[in-house]
Structures are given as C-alpha cells and as structure tokens.
Amino acid sequence: MDPTLEVILRISAAAAVFAAMAAWEIFAPRRDLTVGRKPRWPSNIGILIVDAVAVRLIIPTAAVGVALLAAERGWGLFNLLGLPGWFSGVLGFVVLDLIIYAQHIMFHYVPVLWRLHRMHHADLDIDVTTGVRFHPLEILLSMLIKIAAVLALGIPAVAVVLFEVVLNATSMFNHSNVAMPPRLDRVIRWLVVTPDMHRVHHSIERRETDSNFGFNLPWWDRLFGTYRPQPEAGHDRMTIGIPFFRDPGELRLDRLLTQPFRNDRARVHDDAAARPPVAGAADT
Ligand SMILES: [Zn+2]
Ligand SMILES: [Zn+2]
After folding, report:
1. CA of 92 to the centre of ligand 1 (A)
2. Which candidate, 42, 130, 158, 188, has a CA 20 to 30 Å from the CA of 175?
3. CA-based nearest residue to 175, from 33, 64, 11, 8
4. For the whole model, what pTM was predicted?
C-alpha cells in the first residue's frame, strides 16, 4: 500500500469516527460529566499527539513496516505454513485482538505496567477522548508486543493496518459517553465492545476495573470469564476513575506524563484496593 495513502486512510478514518462520536455525545449523552470537557480535552488530545510523535521517532517502521519485511523474507508461522493470504489476514486480525486483550490484563496485574496503564483509568470522566488517553510508554510497549506478534506469525501488512484503524475506531466508540437503546446495546455487544460494556472497566470499584478487558471483539471476556455486564451502582451513579489522582489538577498534560513515576499522597486507599483499610494508611 502507498505510504501516503495509508496515512490519509488512518487520519481520515480516525477524524470521521471522532467527529461522529463527539456529535453523538452532544446530542444524546449517556450520563452527566463530572468535570466536563474543558479541563480534559486539551490534555487527552495532547497526549494523543505526544504518543504519535513518540512512535514516529522511536519506532518509525511501526508494525506495518515489520509486516512488509516479514512478507518479503517469508518470515513467520503463516508464511511457513503457506496459508492463503485472505486466511492469514483474518486469522492475524483475530489473533492480534486476542493479544491486545491479554496485554491489557497484563497491564492491570503487573505492578510496574499498572503504573503506566492507570493513567488511562485516572480520567475523571469517560468520553471519546478517554479512548486515546494512553501513556506514551504504554503505547511504545504495546507497539513492541504487536511487532513481535507480526514477526512471529507473519501477519499480512493489510491486516495490520486494518486492525490498527479498526482498534482506534472501536476504542473511541466504546469510550464514548453516548446513549444507545438497551436492546440495541445487547445485540451490538455480541459483535463489538459497546460504551456500556467498557464503562464498567472504568469504575472505581477494583473488581469492576478488572473486568471487560476487550477493546474491540467482545468475545474474549465472555470466553475467559472476565465479562461483567453492568456496573453495580448503575451507569448514572457509578464513579469513574481510580482511587488516586482524583484532584482535577491531575488532568493537566504534564501531570498525565509524570503519573507513572509518582505516588498520590491524597489517594483514597492503597493501590491494591482489595485490601481492607489499615488505620493511618490513608495518608502514607
Ligand atoms: Zn484497563
Ligand atoms: Zn478504557
């Protein structure tokens, strides 16, 4: 694929989905925002730009460049098995999605990785811009994992580009603060992760945070027992975020970048939220 065409495809698809979801949020919001757009949108969009520049500078070939190389040299399992191109593409797409699901679980349970990923969860509201709010170190690590998968399996470049475009779109969709008829949600969430399904993952309740890890295909959560249909407090009353970095000052771009390297002195309780509170532990 022509590299210029690829960039145009990526940017125009992302911009179209962003505009559609932002409009839907304005005309049919799902819940009232707690802190609103003004303190959040410049930082959340700012971090998207930082992420794009970081990947471009540090891993300029990205996953698609590695996919082209693997195809040229015949590297990877799918190439070795001589699978038909369309089959490698479909299989590659599904396997990449499973890897992203597994990686997401790893980012929750490995403490050093949770430090990077919790910045995504520290947003005090959830809307379309939360879908692009990831720490650049998480994005770079995620890119390296994707590159390893593409190399090991020999996933075709077209499937890699399509996967990235679709994942970007579904991430913006499932973070959106949009109202959808419950019956429609029930049908759609068999095909793709819906906003109501992913919102459970942004609950302050740790057992809810540690569920619904899927970003795109909803099947993995149901298959591996991490699916939770609704938040216990209901979508309107649930608290979004994590027990720390709840000061609105933490929504600034520079604060987002340094959150992995800081502890929040004002946190409600310890990082391992399941532990019973210990006297005097709240201010440690
Ligand atoms: Zn998460
Ligand atoms: Zn999320």
Report:
1. 23
2. 158
3. 33
4. 0.91
